[in-house]
Amino acid sequence: MALNLLHANDRPGQYPASWYAATAQIAPPRPSLAGATTADVCIVGAGYTGLSAALHLAKAGLKVIVLEAHRAGWGASGRNGGQVGTGQRREQGELQQMLGGDHARQLWDIAEESKALVRELAGNECELQNGVIYADHKARLVSHSEAYARLLQRDYGYNAIRFVDREEIRSLVGSDGYFGGTMDDGAFHLHPLKYVLKLASKAEKAGAIIHELSEVTALSMGNPNSVRTSRGEVKAAHVLLACNGYLGNLDLSVAARVMPINNFIVATEPLGEERARSIISNGAAVADSRFVVNYFHLTRDHRLLFGGGETYGYRFPSDIKAFVRKPMLEVFPQLSGVKIEYGWGGTLAITAKRIPMLRRLSNTVLSASGYSGQGVSIATVCGKIAAEAISGQAGRFDIFASIPTPSFPGGVLLRSPLLALAMIWYSMRDRL
């Protein structure tokens, strides 16, 4: 049976005790599904994918019901680092080699649209701040960063990115651990929970119905499809599974190809403006080149939000603050005396190729997941693309669906320990 992380680390219906939850305006609980009802589309999961799809489908005039096991935005959509990067999770040069130039260009265009879509939907209420620095933690990686910036400028006309050398990156990031990288002024970061809550509100205003505390227990494909919870059933012409790392055993063919992993973030006490600017001088977010990425940015009240460390089983570490403090101090040893006020974890999902998996499970049942750490923007646009496919315009859905997504070795039962071994090897390689 596939792993289901819906109940392993969190209280039912409660957002984690994150800095995000402490600073967002949480909507009152929505009613659970009770009894039988019908819809044009039933969406499972109220994260970026599901809510974006619900918004676009409702605006097109369809009756949409969203079923969420906990609260809207409860999962990775409300817990992540809030970074909106450029392109897909894989670099464009890799995509060109893997898929060919035309296919890589299509994925680039979709990724560029995704950034514009998030900007439009987020508006002015989600603490959006321009700029993402990609920092090389090894000197041998710097030449690749310089070449990649040139590739994006030359082949894609993307001039918002530029190479930064060792001297400049140390003026931008107050750490001796980085040797160069890129500065991307077209990328940005935001408050992810505020953003997903705004998506939920927009979807409801467009006419979508969201039921919380409505965990789906069974899916029967047919005409119509049947989506069941412990207290009710939705019969729908179309179904979209938008569960990402929380899919569980709803569809084992997807679960074999989309691996849940856990990632963790801490928020320090307020550092004060001067000290905060000594950490990141220009307000950009930072993601580094480690296989298990460190990512961080400053908040408007001058805290450092630092993400680092992964686990691959059910349980989060017993002390998340201590777990993340270690990589944080490796980057910023000058913060050794700083108090960490919040620590939380969440479950995202990866694919073997680090390309989202959009898949048809039947003519009327779709799945979209596996954003591999690029979910804020790519999940949002994939929700829109899934809505297009449901409405009869499948061209962009098929751009992703045509990419083979291999199963993880070991199948659903053994993939987690095998992945853990692989990740340990890669993390050791980071230190070489």
Describe the structure.
The protein is α/β, with parallel strands linked by helices and 432 residues long. 35% of the residues lie in helices and 24% in strands. The protein has 13 helices and 17 strands. Strands 3, 4, 5, 6, 11, 12, 13, 14 and 15 form a 9-stranded mixed sheet that branches. Strands 1, 2, 7, 8, 9, 10, 16 and 17 form an 8-stranded mixed sheet that branches. Helix 2 runs parallel beside helix 7, helix 2 (48-59) packs parallel to helix 11 and helix 3 packs across helix 4 (101-122). The longest helix is centred in the first third of the chain and has 22 residues, at 101-122.
Strands, helices and their partners?
Layout: H1 19-23, E1 35-44, H2 48-59, E2 64-67, E3 83-84, H3 92-99, H4 101-122, E4 129-135, H5 142-156, E5 161-164, H6 166-172, E6 181-189, H7 192-206, E7 209-211, E8 216-220, E9 225-229, E10 232-241, H8 252-255, E11 259-268, H9 273-279, E12 285-288, E13 295-298, E14 304-311, H10 320-331, E15 340-350, E16 357-360, E17 365-369, H11 375-390, H12 395-401, H13 411-430
Parallel strand pairs: 1-2, 1-10, 2-7, 4-12, 10-17
Antiparallel strand pairs: 3-6, 4-6, 5-6, 8-9, 9-10, 11-14, 11-15, 12-13, 13-14, 16-17
